[in-house]
User: Fold this.
Amino acid sequence: MPNEWDIQSRADRCAVTGREFAEGEQFYTLLFRDRHGFRREDLSDEAWRQLRESGEKKTQPFSFWRSKFEPPAPPAPEPLAKETAEDLLRRYMAEPDLQHANARYILALMLERKRLFKQVETQEDETGNRTLIYTHAKSGEIFFIPDPNLRLDQIEAVQNEVAALLC
Assistant:
């Protein structure tokens, strides 16, 4: 049997009249048990009175209660928009600071893996320093990423640093 406690959330309008509930208005919630579990109906005060006065006993609710309608609160704004790997790389590219060289390299590899960047060339200067040349898959922009010559034992620490910056 499917989860029989999967009850619908409160409606914003009367199930009988279709009229929207006003803030602070009293309404009734009726739960009916059927072969699929529970079904919820929210009724305005006047629809509830009409149902009671008519004496119609088509289906008795399993349970019912009276509540005051409070509109849902608007979603809280995100405190800070999460920075994407591309945003972070662009910010670090604008800073010539060598302290971000490892993070720039890892971010470029991440974007290559996501197929947002495509490595088109690797250049090596006379001193043996390599530079990876990437193009952005959508915009065609070119990014020059110096290879910081990370050792395998350093990669995990840089990945963790970048992951912490992106969370």
Q: What stands out?
A: The helical segments are 45-54, 85-94, 101-113, 152-166. The CA atoms of residues 46 and 117 lie 62 Å apart. The longest strand covers residues 26-34. Residues 1-76 form one domain.
